[in-house]
Amino acid sequence: GEPQTVDELRQLLMQAKPVKACDEVDWTLFGLSMATYNVAFSLALALASCWGARQIRRAP
User: What is the pTM (predicted TM-score) of this model?
Assistant: First the structure.
């Protein structure tokens, strides 16, 4: 049945599937993880945004 308490809900959720450690990499491409691609893409987007903002400020 349905869990009646928080502890029962916690047990049900923990049994659903095994807990995965945060330091284990599931997927890589060319030896880089998705987290690495996320950092690189976010940095590129931030730099492009700063460049665009400067261009707007310089416009007459």
Answer: 0.59
